[in-house]
Design a protein that fits this description.
Elements: H1 4-18, E1 69-73, H2 87-97, E2 101-105, H3 110-122, E3 127-130, H4 135-147, E4 151-155, E5 166-170, H5 172-189, E6 196-201, H6 208-226, E7 231-237, H7 243-256, E8 263-266, H8 269-281, E9 289-290, H9 297-304, E10 311-313, H10 316-332, E11 344-347, E12 355-361, E13 364-366, H11 372-377, H12 382-386, H13 390-395
Parallel strand pairs: 1-2, 1-3, 3-4, 4-5, 5-12, 6-7, 6-8, 8-9
Antiparallel strand pairs: 10-13, 11-12
Helix pairs in contact: 1-7, 2-10, 3-4, 5-6, 7-8
């Protein structure tokens, strides 16, 4: 594998001269991207009826108030960008609405995660809501909770090999299908045939959510590849969904693909942002279809300005409310179904035969055709989204 500096030294040739259909013209301007079918490709996409999730949003149920204490242990930042980035605050607010006493911690390392969890257990919490900082620390905390008779809800991703009884997350497999199908639809809308695709997954060696996302992507792409209707030029892992790892990973993948790419499936908006930064250096920004996930202001701005083709809206408020309702039901001794929550078995890949009961939430495909939906939901304000890009915002109905 080449070093970053070596890859970037090649990038001026790889991107500027051969990105998407290079020609023999050696002028300063890069050749506009071309699909293998000969049609010009742009990132801007306005698929009017995007692929929708089969997962249902839980109905609203009034659980009243309960007396109990819940510990919330969520890291300060996760690899997957969110509209608010304030999961712990959202979960605490949702719990307090139901009258629950909440103890919150946002540990930054595994040792702090373990010590705060033990303190919460010693303080008498009856439920822990956790997103483990390091899988091994998560396994240890969940074992300690089990010994103390404390219920554990894994939040957003499974602690593999752990002992939590429940999981609340978004349906990543469905989201992977959304990304791949919408990318294909965006390219088809432009007349592309046999598109060349690079896949950047979110670190399938460390996160089961990334495994499921990648599985969903391949459920859509593999039949097309087998039929000769698409080509996966390269697939690479961006460990831990971390945007900081994405640019060098994409540079190497793009180099290996000979600079030929019509579309990039980026596992998150943060990864997509890094991809766009690399493409911009060779004049390819806005000329390659790029996916994302998260629907924060950054990703949405890229969609509005026509640099990113789509994102998937995963509303952190819905996830926080689902986790709070599940915790309240457990405290009250009621079934999760009484809280309007539908549980389904979710397999632990590290513990054969072990399943947890999972609440899986839907995502929503966002393109230029429906970017207003995220603003109307209240997750992102017009001011936050449109400052400095008023004309592109006006073009998609945001003022």
């Amino acid at each position: 594998m080449r070093t970053l500096s070596a890859s970037l030294s090649l990038l001026g040739v790889v991107v500027a001269l051969s990105l998407q259909g290079c020609s023999s013209d050696t002028g300063d301007d890069p050749t506009p991207p071309r699909s293998s079918g000969g049609g010009a490709i742009t990132a801007a996409c306005a698929v009017a009826a995007p692929f929708s999730s089969p997962t249902a949003t839980p109905p609203t149920v009034d659980l009243g108030t309960v007396r109990g204490k819940v510990g919330v242990l969520l890291p300060k930042a996760t690899g997957l960008a969110r509209p608010s980035g304030a999961d712990a605050r959202l979960v605490a607010k949702a719990l307090e609405t139901h009258g629950v006493t909440v103890e919150v911690a946002t540990p930054a390392d595994p040792a702090a995660f373990r010590s705060r969890a033990q303190r919460m257990i010693d303080d008498g919490v009856t439920v822990l809501i956790v997103d483990a900082v390091g899988n091994a620390a998560g396994v240890a905390v969940e074992a300690a909770a089990a010994r103390a008779g404390v219920d554990v809800i894994d939040y957003d991703r499974l602690t593999q090999g752990g002992s939590a009884q429940y999981l609340v997350s978004f349906d990543e497999e469905s989201i992977g299908r959304m990304q791949a199908q919408t990318l294909v639809d965006c390219l088809a809308q432009q007349g592309a045939s046999d598109p060349r695709i690079i896949v950047l997954d979110g670190g399938t060696d460390v996160d089961n959510g990334a495994v499921l996302l990648d599985k969903g992507v391949h459920e859509v792409l593999d039949p097309l590849v087998a039929a000769g209707r698409a080509r996966i030029e390269e697939e690479a892992t961006v460990k831990g969904w971390r945007a900081a790892n994405a640019a060098p990973t994409f540079v190497v993948a793009l180099d290996a693909a000979g600079g030929q790419v019509d579309g990039v499936i980026a596992a998150s908006d943060g990864i997509a942002d890094a991809v766009l930064g690399v493409l911009a250096r060779g004049g390819g920004n806005g000329r390659v279809a790029v996916t994302g996930q998260g629907s924060g202001a950054q990703g949405l701005r890229h969609v509005v300005t026509g640099q990113q083709s789509m994102t998937v809206f995963v509303d952190p408020r819905a996830e926080a409310e689902a986790a709070a309702r599940l915790a309240v039901a457990l405290i009250a001794g009621r079934s999760p179904s009484a809280a309007g929550l539908r549980l389904s078995p979710y397999a632990d890949p590290r513990s054969p035969g072990r399943t947890v009961e999972a609440v899986q939430l839907p995502g929503q495909v966002i393109t230029r055709a429906n970017v207003q939906d995220v603003v109307h939901s209240g997750a992102v304000s017009v001011a936050e989204l449109c400052t400095g890009i008023t004309e592109p915002c006006a073009a998609v109905g945001l003022r």
